[in-house]
């Protein structure tokens, strides 16, 4: 089969990788507290440029065949983004999926029994999530669906992104301008007679 | 004329239902959206919708001929603005 017509053939996350300067705490947190199996580790002499440090690249299974990986570099001084604003820090996160409330609460129980208790549990629009900061300072979320995503949600997402493309290309984008642009797109795409709705 | 669009899914449908009880307010189905249209402004009391926090603050899909003047834990108010000629 040809993939020349932009067929959507990617298959999820192979791995997401982050540096760690505390491999003991990282392994304790992911393997021993959360119970994510270690599935691979590359132990390598520095490569490429002569000054590349020796490292261990180790992987945890996060379900579905997807993996979360860390690099530990020998002899490299710990680094953290100290000046990062809280908003930006919390925007950068990995969210791991579970299917049910029972499974979400099981991970909450494991966290609460550890040195890294759950920091926040929130029912969002379509998902319920728990949050914890891992030993490296990375925000991590575990989330379960609250309802099925429908075709209406998908259509709305397309309209939203098209409106955002337009508004973000103008000076001083605002939510107000976004709502107005989106209303124009809706009126254009679904013009014509609209059925009146009454509520019983 | 002020128009508020909400997506026609169970989470957001209560906004259209609450709004429809006000005078001079009609609701039409436009594609996957409920189009709430009012001669003046649109005021929707959150308590009457039963929406929890995250659903309430993500309930507006689009606004035409108006602007969101208030959107807090008590109510959503869309005020009419002068439309461009």
TrEMBL record, chain A:
Superkingdom classification of source: Bacteria
SUPFAM superfamilies, per the entry: Glyoxalase/Bleomycin resistance protein/Dihydroxybiphenyl dioxygenase (SSF54593)
VOC domain residues: 12-145
InterPro entries: Glyas_Bleomycin-R_OHBP_Dase, Glyas_Fos-R_dOase_dom, VOC_core
Protein name from the UniProt record: Glyoxalase/bleomycin resistance protein/dioxygenase
Organism field: Pseudonocardia dioxanivorans (strain ATCC 55486 / DSM 44775 / JCM 13855 / CB1190)
UniProtKB/TrEMBL annotation, chain B:
Annotated organism of origin: Pseudonocardia benzenivorans
Name recorded for this polypeptide: Uncharacterized protein
